[in-house]
Amino acid sequence: MNSVYANKNIVLGVTGGIAAYKAAEICSALVQGGASVHVIMTESATKFVGPVTFRALTGHQVITGLWDEPREFEIAHVSLPDKADLLLVVPATANIIGKVANGVADDMLSTTIMATKAPVVFAPAMNWKMWANPVMQKNVEKLTALGYRFIEPECGRLACGEEGKGRLASPGVILKAVADVLAIKNDLDGVAILVTAGPTQEPIDPVRMIVNRSSGKMGYAVARAAVERGAKVILVSGPTDIPEPAGVELVKVQTAAEMLSAVMARLPEAKVVIGAAAVADFTPKSPGNQKIKKTGDELSIELQPTTDITAEVGRNKGDRVLVGFAAETENLIKNAQSKLASKNYDFVVANDVSKPGIGFGADENEVTIIGKDGSVREVARAPKLDIANEILDSVKQALGA
Ligand SMILES: Cc1cc2nc3c(=O)[nH]c(=O)nc-3n(C[C@H](O)[C@H](O)[C@H](O)COP(=O)(O)O)c2cc1C
User: How far is the CA of 301 from the centre of ligand 1 (A)?
Assistant: First the structure.
């Protein structure tokens, strides 16, 4: 069978929400695609749909309790997670997300999630107030940083009769997300990649600083995508609110000068350098040792240029692959091409930060990847993780060349 699901072992977790019946359609599509699907239902889920539905669809015993006598696996909560290529939770209640985010393993599903090394994908569905609850959002943020994936719920009419964001994503979206995760290649296995991310902060005095609008999301997405593809990642990051991503070696810095020394110190280990950080171009020449007092007079702060980090890497590049970013507000391609040449990049990732909804702080981006060989690849608007994978595809090609 020529399907991305063919011969894959998928554990489907079903939890206790009204959308539980929709899990049957997903289950059926996966089985039809050639996957071997094992279903774990929470006790609450069984109040909404009967296990017999999933047993009939999958041909396998459905596990509903930690203390069930498993017929197919010796110790199901250990053998199932080992066997799984992917664990999908449809629908995912606020409860299961909260449990996983806090290390609770008190039923078969949460225990299996805790014990698996396979990718875990949650498709949440709940009342819009539950989804919008800051506790819920913190849990999602925490789990996302740890490498768990979420298929965002949709906006619309909810089963409770209210309108809002919380409806289970459509089967097509869920199946595509599963296919994308199953298609992740381990094609950067062991490749050492140095990534920079985030803004830098340049002190004016002990309480004030010059910053920029970079959130660090693009660089963190590159780091995460690289780890997922097997790379050994060193992430040199300016100050961000993003939780530490799983599997990377994180080096935290504050100023452009600190980022420069961290990058140059780790450069010998790296085969690839991806400079996604928005490094300050200027820094106060003589930052005050004490807080500068307000006197009513004008204040001039003398700025001096910082060392251009990616250009410095470019000068010491050796046989490394070097990728830089060009965040521009005008003449995007022309400005990006001149950076590519002057800084000895192999690729420049150009994005127009003046466009709403992409670039700084956004969850999505839209970029043009320009190669030193003259190649120009437009990458349509997509989540930053997808953009990161496109960039890594170019890197992979350059490594193979
Ligand atoms: C009729 C009904 C519908 C529910 N729908 C949802 C839902 O859509 N999403 C959700 O997160 N919780 C929903 N709940 C609450 C969960 O069932 C409850 O939090 C339960 O503890 C979840 O257990 P589980 O995560 O182990 O399946 C619903 C409860 C009831 C009674």
Answer: 57
Instruction: Supply the DSSP symbol for 261.
Output: H
CATH superfamily, with its number, for domain 9-182? Flavin prenyltransferase-like (3.40.50.1950)
Q: Domain 192-400 belongs to what topology?
A: Rossmann fold (3.40.50)
**Which amino acid residue places its CA nearest to atom 29 of ligand 1?**
17
pLDDT of 343-377, one tens digit each?
999 999 998 888 877 667 777 889 999 999 999 99
Cα 350 from Cα 370, distance rounded (Å): 8
pLDDT surpasses 90 at 263: yes
Ligand 1 centroid–CA 40 distance in Å is 16
Token pair in block for residue 349: 């990732």
Confidence of residue 157 (pLDDT cuts 50, 70, 90): confident
Query: DSSP string of 25-68?
Result: HHHHHHHHTT-EEEEEE-TTHHHHS-HHHHHHHHSSPPB--TTS
Structure tokens at 164: 């809002």
CA distance 38 to 339: 51
Q: Whose CA is nearest to atom 16 of ligand 1?
A: 16
Q: Residue 42 and residue 37: Cα distance in Å, rounded?
A: 16
Contact between residue 61 and residue 72 where contact means Cβ atoms under 8 Å apart: yes
Domain ranges across the chain: 9-182, 192-400
Residue 96 CA to ligand 1 center (angstroms) comes to 10
User: Among positive and negative, which fits the CA dihedral 259, 262, 265, 266?
Assistant: negative
Select the more confidently predicted residue: 147 or 166: 166
The DSSP secondary-structure symbol of 106 reads -
Active site residues: 160
CB contact burial 304-314 (16+ within 10 A = b; e otherwise): eebebbbbebb
Predicted TM-score (pTM) of the model is: 0.79
Q: What is the pLDDT of residues 83-104, one digit of tens each?
A: 899 999 999 999 999 999 999 9
Contact 108, 96 (CB under 8 A): no
CA distance 245 to 384: 15
**How far is 118 from 148, CA to CA, in rounded Å?**
10
Question: Looking at residue 70, what is its pLDDT?
Answer: 59
